[in-house]
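The protein record now logged underneath.
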Amino acid sequence: MVLNEWNFEMKNFDASDEMVGKVNCAVCEHGILGGRWFARIKSGGYMVALCCPLCEEVFMKGPLGYVRRIETYQKMGSGS
């Protein structure tokens, strides 16, 4: 496990052998199929998927905006 300056847990992860559906990259919203993300980072109560090194770098420069976007999507999806 690697902690960066924001104390986010970071590790490269391949979940291609797990039953993972489609997720979207938290930064560019590119669809990631079959658990083939570049990295997943735990941020607050969320596990954020990132598709490539550039998206990881962008996320780490300003994670709060991306986490807020995820929260907004969840609220919209739950009808709250």
